[in-house]
User: Which sequence fits this backbone?
């Protein structure tokens, strides 16, 4: 039972990384994107293929997962970011599905629906981080989450954070201030994508096998739920949202009721949570983080740190 | 006097609808130039074209000797290539837009809005200095600097939008209906400020207004637009006396 709880924590960490990425895209940039599953899959398969086929170490595959998903973020971002709202959601949703279908059908590279097994465990300074023992793995995951959190916090306070906030509030006014909205939107998209790639890489080395069936549309929806539930534009809230949604999704197993509660129950619950949130607390549990962009000296509250 | 903004024979279309047809005008450095016209005459389209929000189907726009926009098909100066700077690049050249309906960042404080206006300014000391100057110039903004812009009145928001535009240190400021939806007393106050910006800070002003009387009184030169064409151009004082203008726009 406790072991199972640790597993939920590990998954929460992996999803928290994706939620942080989603938050920079949706919470800060105001873009409703549904691609996290796609980038997650790209990261996972980068690690799976490079370790099993080419004998790379897990650590060597991390930068590849990062750069590859960043590259796809750029390729998807450039054409789709002209779209807004629902249209962007549909276009990006398509990308996630394309990735999954490619993985499913490119047998020579991905081994198709069978997936890739026997992914090696990560080794750090001669110590094997064994996913079955969980503690070490848990620590590793949360080091990644912490690093990502700190980087994103810093980013939010930077020029880019300010630019994205302005773009979200009013694109025309932002442009008139001299902000290149396409550039900052694409940056946000790339960042969100690359952190999801890292999450995918970690997921591959945790489960030690990957199959296309893991990276469904539901993953993207879950990540979006985490951000909305926690509070858009708040990185702490994204992490909190990841924990809550993961706990809820394992609720039947945790309570030993998985026999009597059907699997679809999860989806009903997510829907219910979102509806309830939208009615009573649309800003999310924690709400948006307010920042002072006192860029200049002399106002007493320095934004520069 | 030097021409700061030159609009040379531009046309803009929305599908089959010709919003601007062969419009030519110029704004001299240091002047306040106004453009008056009825609803739907194409005034806002012209401003959008200047800041690169609407592509030209003909003609070109020159700012400070540099072409910022040129229609693709038009053969101008023997060149066939089009040129189209994006809004942010045009802003960087020194044109600040105060958009119609103000478009303030409602969830940011007054101070944050002003900081946003100085996005292109990299010098923190200069930003602080300009902010203080704005608080002196618009005391109400100084008093409300920590308030969310959402909580400001319409007139205060308009002043903030003007202050935000000035934060970039522009050479030309474009004002799209600054008096829209405001009480006459507040409008008078805002026009007085516009005049001071022009006289004290030497910022050239291009003003688009439906309130013809206010605009003509505040400006040195005026253009009248009807159905996407410029129909009159004269000194503002002369336009105030013009029979046609008096009948159509001043209700006399």
Assistant:
């Amino acid at each position: 039972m406790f072991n199972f709880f640790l597993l939920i924590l590990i998954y929460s960490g992996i999803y928290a990384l994706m939620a942080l990425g989603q938050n920079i895209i949706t919470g800060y940039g105001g873009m409703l994107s549904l691609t996290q599953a796609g980038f997650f899959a790209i990261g996972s398969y980068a690690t799976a293929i490079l370790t099993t086929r080419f004998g790379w170490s897990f650590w060597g595959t991390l930068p590849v997962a990062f750069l590859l998903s960043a590259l796809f973020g750029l390729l998807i971002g450039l054409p789709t970011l002209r779209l807004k709202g629902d249209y962007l959601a549909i276009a990006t949703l398509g990308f996630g599905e394309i990735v999954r279908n490619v993985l499913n059908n490119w047998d020579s590279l991905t081994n198709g629906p069978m997936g890739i097994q026997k992914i090696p465990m990560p080794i750090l300074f001669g110590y094997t981080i064994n996913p079955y023992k969980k503690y070490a793995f848990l620590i590793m995951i949360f080091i990644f989450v912490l690093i990502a959190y700190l980087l994103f916090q810093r980013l939010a306070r930077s020029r880019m954070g300010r630019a994205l906030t302005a773009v979200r509030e009013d694109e025309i006014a932002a442009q008139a201030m001299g902000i290149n909205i396409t550039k900052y939107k694409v940056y946000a998209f790339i960042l969100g994508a690359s952190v999801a790639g890292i999450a995918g890489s970690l997921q591959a080395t945790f489960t030690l096998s990957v199959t296309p069936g893991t990276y469904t549309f539901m993953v993207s929806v879950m990540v979006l739920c985490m951000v909305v539930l926690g509070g858009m534009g708040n990185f702490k809230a994204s992490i909190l949202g990841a924990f809550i949604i993961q706990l809820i999704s394992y609720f039947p197993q945790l309570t030993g009721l998985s026999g009597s509660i059907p699997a679809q129950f999860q989806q009903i619950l997510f829907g219910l949570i979102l509806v309830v949130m939208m009615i009573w607390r649309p800003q999310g549990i924690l709400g948006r983080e307010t920042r002072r962009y006192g860029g200049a000296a002399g106002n007493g509250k320095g934004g520069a740190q | 006097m030097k021409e700061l903004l030159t609009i040379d024979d531009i046309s803009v279309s929305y599908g089959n609808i010709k919003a601007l047809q062969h419009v030519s005008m110029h704004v001299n450095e240091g002047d306040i130039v106004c453009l008056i016209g009825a609803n739907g005459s194409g005034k806002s389209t012209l401003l959008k074209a200047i800041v690169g929000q609407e592509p030209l189907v003909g003609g070109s726009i020159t700012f400070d000797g540099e072409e910022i926009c040129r229609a693709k098909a038009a053969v101008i100066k023997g060149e066939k290539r089009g040129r189209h700077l994006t809004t942010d690049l045009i802003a960087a050249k020194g044109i600040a837009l105060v958009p119609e309906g103000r478009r303030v960042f409602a969830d940011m404080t007054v101070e944050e809005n002003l900081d946003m206006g100085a996005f292109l300014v990299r010098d923190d000391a200069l930003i602080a200095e300009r902010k203080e100057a704005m608080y002196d110039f618009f005391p109400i903004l100084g008093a409300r600097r920590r308030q969310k812009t959402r909580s400001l009145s319409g007139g205060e928001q308009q002043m903030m939008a003007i202050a935000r535009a000035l934060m970039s240190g522009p050479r030309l400021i474009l004002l799209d209906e600054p008096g829209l939806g405001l009480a006459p007393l507040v409008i008078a106050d805002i026009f007085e400020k516009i005049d001071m910006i022009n006289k004290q800070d030497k910022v050239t002003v291009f003003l688009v207004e439906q309130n013809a009387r206010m605009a003509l009184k505040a400006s040195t030169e005026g253009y009248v637009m009807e159905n996407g064409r410029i129909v009159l151009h004269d000194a503002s004082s002369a336009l105030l006396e013009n029979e046609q203008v008096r009948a159509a726009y001043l209700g006399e």
In short: The interface with chain A takes residues 51, 53, 86-89, 91-92, 96-97, 99, 103-108, 111-112, 115-120, 124-125, 127-128, 131-132, 164-165, 168 of chain B (CB under 8 Å). The mean pLDDT of chain B is 89.
